[in-house]
Amino acid sequence: xxxxxYKMNLSPPxxxxxxxxxxxxxxxxxxxxxxxAGEQMTQDYLKLNPxxxxxxxxxxxxxxxxxHAIMQYLIETYAEDSPLLPxxxxxxxxxNHRLHFDTGILFARGLAIxxxxxxxxxxxxxxxxxxxxxxxxxxxxxxxxQNEWIAGDQMTIADLSCVTNVTTFSxxxxxxxxxxxxxxxxIKRFEDVPHFKEINEGVNDYINVxxxxxxRD
Length: 217
What we know:
- By secondary structure, the chain is of the alpha+beta class.
- The chain has two domains: 4-79, 3-Layer(aba) Sandwich (Glutaredoxin), CATH 3.40.30.10; 89-215, Glutathione S-transferase Yfyf (Class Pi), Chain A, domain 2 (Up-down Bundle).
- Helices cover 56% and strands 7% of the residues.
- A four-stranded mixed β-sheet has the order 2-1-3-4, covered by helices on one side.
- Strand 3 and strand 4 (62-65) form a beta hairpin.
- Helix 4 (89-119) packs antiparallel against helix 5 and helix 4 (89-119) runs parallel beside helix 6 (157-169).
- The longest helix is centred in the middle third of the chain and has 31 residues, at 89-119.
- It starts with a strand and ends with a helix.
- 37% of the residues are buried.
- The mean pLDDT is 97.
């Protein structure tokens, strides 16, 4: 039985897991959620995930939240030889650092802006929030001056997490070759990754939700 993934495509972490499963050839049963309608707050879903977030994995009763944890679990369980999750201790340590950066800085700063717009009806995001997100994306640029990929010389799950966030939050911080040449080249490399363009169309869903929230009375 294939693992079940609860998802909503506008979510960057969801798209990271979808990319991971496609690249590693892991079959999953996909279950769409409508967070805007509050489906994540139902009692049944809260029993599975008290954090009421997506993505959420259900692998024959084993429940796991958080995209980073899910991707590591999927690779170690179903595709242990995948280069998406290096086995070398130092390479894995670098990967873990980038994942913590993604959770605590990059995604967190983009999420803070998202919540202001959707839940607090902010029409103009305060400059301090934009500056913090800009700084986070600047750090990604610096990571990519060291190697072609976020955590080394090959693509890993850290790239999947960071690229879905950077392309989503580029709505607030435009990615140009002048300002971010390394990120621009990195995103261009991703365009050759199978299923990337298709899966990352979820960026448009995110933009639609943000613009609808900013334009409502």
